[in-house]
Amino acid sequence: MTRIVIYSADPWDSAISYLRIREPAYYLGWELIPAKTDGGIDTHIAKDADYIIIQRDFPRFVQCNEIIQIAKQKGIPLIYEIDDCIFYTPDPNKQYEAYRYYLNGILNTIIAADRVIISSKFLYRQLINFNKHVFLFPNYLPENIWKIKSLEIDNSENLTIGYMGGNTHDQDLEWVTPVLLKILEQNKNVSIKIWGCRPPQQLLDQPKVQYLAIDFQDYPQFAEYFQNQSCDVFIAPLLDSPFDQGKSGIKFLEYSALGIPGVYKRLDPYIDYVVDGENGYLAGGLDEWYEKIVSLLSDSNIRHRFAENAQITVRQHVMSKHFREWETAINGSSIQTEIVDDMTHDNNPLDLIQHISIDTQKAIWDIQNIIASLKQENHDLENENLGLKEHLDNVLNSQTWKIAKIIQSILRVFKFQKE
User: Structure pTM?
Assistant: First the structure.
């Protein structure tokens, strides 16, 4: 049985573990060994692996270099796996501080790896300049976790717009907020339901906005919960940024599995899944977002047709039909040429290096400021201690202290005689 040792900073039950490793390995019958547990990081177990996978931001740990050396010395194929363009995490994003200190280590791991597995064409274009063995394995819907629900025709006059996203998507939601506020103002029968990402205060202040602050770390638990939720139209806004372009289209598959149509950003993550006007809407600017959300809300026949066609697309993108692609990527076999032919890689690698360099310099400045602050604090404490020492010396040398010592001696004599 093929034995793969996994080094990941993410929980073993997280979405990235299931979508990128656990589900395809399940279909192949391969043994997976997570080497980072609550007990620490086991580097020695890597020596007995058939393959070693380092995932996402694991290079934040110092043991990463040791693992790379073990792979090289033992001749074990080393694979780096990533499904997000974390190099371009924007400064306001909640994950920015978590990644900025480790970007150099991540890039070094990409260069050292025998193979790199990514989830999007955008990531391919970014990383092919640093490793010539980059394999595309998109995110597919795992049928062991998600069930494709039967479609239900709902002709109710009261309609709900839904949005689901993690806590790093607050900027995406903020961007589309003016559209949502306009729709609420003009349509008294429309409400909004938001799962996960905290919406802007402007939306929270609206009586017809419901916010459900879910934060599942366990992907199967999340899927079970979310498959029991409902709305009439889903939205998937994104910013036109390198960070968002590097996202995968898994949200389309998850939304569509519920039998609910959606409006999606006209951007890399969705243009490979959504045929505009057939199985969903693609939208660019805010005006187009408004028009297409209203179009879906206004016509139940369009909603039903989109949902029906979207589920046809979902059935073409389930894990059971594509897990062999993961095997191909792990083994380093030839890439599917039909997928890669349109992935031009004329990106200038200096752009990414410069971006990492800027973030690294910012991190260095932050560390220098922290060190300077600690030095000042230490200096202040030393001065304070010196002042206290001088004060204590003055007390000990004072006439009052000498008299107090004499009185203390007399009291001890009286106490001794009394006893």
Answer: 0.81
Residues 6+ apart with CB under 8 A from 376: none
Strands (E) across 247-384 are located at 262-265, 281-283
- Spatial strand order in the sheet of 190-196: 209-212, 190-196, 159-165, 233-236, 262-265, 281-283
Angle at 104 (CA atoms; ends 101, 108), nearest 5 degrees: 145
Give SS3 for 80: strand
Cβ neighbours around 291 below 10 Å, total: 14
Return the closest-CA partner of residue 195 out of 258, 270, 272. 258
Question: Buried b vs exposed e over 185-217: b needs ≥16 C-beta within 10 Å?
Answer: eebeebbbbbbbbebeeebeebebbeeeebebe
Contact 141, 253 (CB under 8 A): yes
Q: Which of 174, 87, 140, 89 is nearest to 352 (CA)?
A: 87
Structure tokens at 72: 């090289």
Q: From first to last of its 419 residues, what are the pLDDT tens digits of the chain?
A: 899 999 999 999 999 999 999 999 999 999 999 999 888 999 999 999 999 999 999 999 999 999 999 999 999 999 999 998 888 877 765 666 667 778 888 989 999 999 999 999 999 998 998 899 999 999 999 999 999 998 876 778 899 999 999 888 889 999 999 999 999 999 999 999 999 999 999 999 999 999 999 999 999 999 999 999 999 999 999 999 888 898 999 999 999 999 999 999 999 899 999 999 999 999 999 999 999 999 999 999 999 999 999 999 999 999 999 999 999 999 987 554 444 545 554 566 656 665 555 556 555 656 666 776 777 777 777 777 777 777 777 776 777 666 666 666 665 655 555 55
Is the Cα dihedral 99, 101, 103, 106 positive or negative? negative
Nearest Cα neighbor of 179 from 161, 156, 158 is: 161
The span from the CA of 10 to the CA of 86, in Å, is 14
Residue 17's φ and ψ, nearest 5 degrees, are -70, -45
